[in-house]
Design a protein that fits this description.
GO terms for molecular function: oxidoreductase activity, acting on the CH-OH group of donors, NAD or NADP as acceptor. This is Short-chain dehydrogenase. Pfam families: adh_short. InterPro entries: NAD(P)-bd_dom_sf, Sc_DH/Rdtase_CS, SDR_fam. The protein has helices spanning 14-25, 57-71, 94-122, 143-162, 180-185, 197-207; strands at 5-9, 29-33, 46-49, 76-79, 125-130, 167-174, 219-222. The chain is of the alpha/beta class. A seven-stranded parallel β-sheet has the order 3-2-1-4-5-6-7, with helices on both faces. Strand 1, helix 1 and strand 2 form a beta-alpha-beta unit. Helix 1 packs across helix 6 (197-207) and helix 3 runs parallel beside helix 4 (143-162). The mean pLDDT is 95.
Length: 226
């Protein structure tokens, strides 16, 4: 990853922070994009863009273009920004479906569309999306979330076909990620079976690397030790 310029959306979240740290450790330069406020001044290798609403195409475009301008190029986009909701179809709020679609599908779509010209110019452009194992077969209370992540899967496949030979586009499909929030919501679960952020970050960064040049359109399950 040495010398690669990578945009990471949702960079201040539990997974995003680990991806950013791992990428920096491997010699990449990172543009960190998040809805939360900027937390640190820019350095040679890290440029934070806070307060960005990626559900808005104009804001997404400004953030991506600012990242490319700051570093002079863009080699990879890792779309981690998203959201989760648990409620049944019968008793839930229809607005939840709109919110999940906006947070999971539109954030990835808007960032990807803005990044395509920059990634195509790279010669080794990469897009890595975050899908979900739970979108392959939705369980109770997972309808809105699973439907939106299924949209991410189809977006990944469509982009991979459209951009074949120019930019690779893949998605990782994690099961339950071992985060503090997930432990708090499922205190009786066997945490040892969950995929760790570090394990997931390793797969994501492989797909963003030169070594994955022959991989595109893949929906790659990362399901820990279940």
């Amino acid at each position: 990853m040495h010398g690669k310029v990578i945009v990471v959306t949702g960079a201040l979240g539990a997974l995003g922070r680990v991806v950013v740290d791992e990428a920096l450790a491997q010699g990449a330069r990172i543009a960190s994009v998040d809805h939360a406020p900027t937390q640190a001044p820019a350095t040679v290798d890290l440029f934070e863009l806070g307060g960005i609403d990626l559900t808005d195409a104009a804001q997404a475009g400004k953030a991506i273009n600012a990242a490319a301008s700051h570093f002079g190029k863009l080699d990879a986009l890792i779309n981690i920004a998203g959201g989760f909701a648990f409620e049944t179809v019968a008793d839930g709020d229809p607005k939840t479906w709109q919110r999940m679609y906006a947070l999971n599908v539109m954030t990835a779509l808007n960032a990807s569309r803005a990044a395509i010209p920059h990634l195509a110019a790279s010669g080794a452009g990469r897009i890595v999306n975050i899908g979900a194992m739970g979108a392959l077969q939705a369980g109770p209370g997972m309808g809105a979330y699973a439907a939106s992540k299924a949209g991410v899967h189809r977006l990944t496949e469509a982009l991979a076909t459209e951009l074949k030979g120019k930019i690779t586009v893949n998605a990782v499909l994690p099961s339950i990620i071992d985060t503090a929030a997930n432990r708090a919501s499922m205190p009786k679960a066997d945490f040892a079976k969950w995929v760790t952020p570090k394990e997931l970050a390793d797969v994501i960064l492989f797909l963003a690397s030169d070594a994955a040049s022959a991989v595109t359109g893949a929906l790659l399950p990362v399901n820990g030790r279940v």
